[in-house]
Amino acid sequence: VGPLTMKGWIYIISNAALPGLVKVGHTHKDPELRAKQLRSSGVPHQYEVKYKVLVENPRRMEMRVHQRLVEVREGKEWF
Questions:
Q1: What distance in Å separates the CA atoms of residue 24 and residue 22, rounded to the nearest whole number?
Q2: 21 Cβ contact partners less than 8 Å away, ≥ 6 residues apart
Q3: Any residues with CB less than 8 A from the CB of 69 and at least 6 apart, and which?
Q4: Banded pLDDT at 3 (limits 50, 70, 90)
Q5: How many whole angstroms separate alpha carbon 73 and alpha carbon 21?
Q6: How many other β-carbons are positioned within 10 Å of the β-carbon of residue 62?
Q7: CA pair distance 60, 42, nearest whole angstrom
Q8: pLDDT at residue 15, rounded to an integer
Q9: Percent of the chain at pLDDT above 90?
C-alpha cells in the first residue's frame, strides 16, 4: 500500500483566538492529536476539532477542498 492509497483524515479545526477562521488539513494520525500539536504554537486558546472524516488519499482530498475554498483563503490552510 503506497502513500497515495493510504487512508487518513481530513479535519477542520478552529480556535477562539482566531474568530471566523478555520483550518482545513489532513493527517494520518487522529485529528485530536493534531489539534494538540498545534496548541504549542503560542495561541492562547486550545484548538477544537469541528469536523473529521476518514478518507482514501487524504492529501489529494485536502488539495481539492483548498481549491474550492481558494476565494476565502486567509493564508496556507486557514479559511
A1: 6
A2: 14, 15, 74, 78, 79
A3: 24, 79
A4: low
A5: 9
A6: 20
A7: 29
A8: 94
A9: 76
Tell me, what DSSP letter sits at residue 78?
Answer: B
Per-residue exposure over 2-27, b if at least 16 CB sit within 10 Å of its own CB, e if not: eeeeeebbbbbbbbeeeeeebbbbbb
Q: Which residue has the cell 483548498?
A: 66
Tell me the per-residue pLDDT of 7-52, one tens digit each, with 9 for 90 and over. Answer: 999 999 999 999 999 999 999 999 999 898 887 667 889 999 999 9
C-alpha cell at position 63: 488539495
Q: What is the pTM of this model?
A: 0.85
Amino acid present at 2:
G
